[in-house]
Amino acid sequence: xxxxxxxxxxxxxxxxxxxxxxxxxxxxxxxxxxxxxxxxxxxxxxxxxxxxxxxxxxxxxxxxxxxxxxxxxxxxxxxxxxxxxxxxxxxxxxxxxxxxxxxxxxxxxxxxxxxxxxxxxxxxxxxxxxxxxxxxxxxxxxxxxxxxxxxxxxxxxxxxxxxxxxxxxxxxxxxxxxxxxxxxxxxxxxxxxxxxxxxxxxxxxxxxxxxxxxxxxxxxxxxxxxxxxxxxxxxxxxxxxxxxxxxxxxxxxxxxxxxxxxxxxxxxxxxxxxxxxxxxxxxxxxxxxxxxxxxxxxxxxxxxxxxxxxxxx
Length: 313
Description:
Structural class: alpha+beta
Helix content: 10-25%
Strand order of the largest sheet: 5-13-9-6-8-7
Number of helices: 6
Oligomer: single chain
CATH architecture: Alpha-Beta Complex
Shape: flat
Radius of gyration: 26 Å
Largest sheet: 6 strands, mixed
CATH topology: phage-related protein like fold
Order of helices and strands: HEEEEHHHEHEHEEEEEEE
């Protein structure tokens, strides 16, 4: 029988000294939406919501005693799917027990430095790393996810993210730097589309954050303190904070209304959502999977906006 690759004392060696995790873990939009354990249960792998509207206002004056015009307004369905996130890892019995083993245990490593190592529970450590990976993947999908839904199980479901969803207010960056005109057009476009501006947040990467900050702030006169850090941007229609997100494309800026965005989770009976469970044993190791299904309900796309194709250098 083929042996599935395991985490062993050879593949997961222990080392002495403080352990630094070098991959950033921040997921600001996911956190603002409640994290991997927030959101609202769903009971299908598809989620839907709908919109309707009324005609533009006019001086719709009528004749005395006249009959009304009979006209109805239809509704439009919006659909997204729940995306599966599934990770696995395996730890051998020896690896789990040999917390004092330093290095990979080869014959050339007898002269290891003495000391203690920080990982005393390999299963917990691997679980923590996998959950952090899932959170970052969910953050990426919330922002950039490509919609994928087929009638057969040959293609994995993919939820539509905010950038692909926004179509009505899409301000062209023209491969240049952001300008106050672009930002004003962005906010005005959302306002003209009926956006209520209930809880608006601008999301962008580090480069565009600096550029937008330079547009609206100035350096203090003090010779002892320098630099700027724009926290809240004020416009004619709404004031909003700016959030830096590592998972935004470098050439895009999003303006989203968090009040009309929520996460949807599929509840697995007896397990909940985003759970870890032990898998069947075939040899001397523990095997685990972490599993969850999550989707994004973003309300009317015209209540959000974006600036695209900005310069990245």
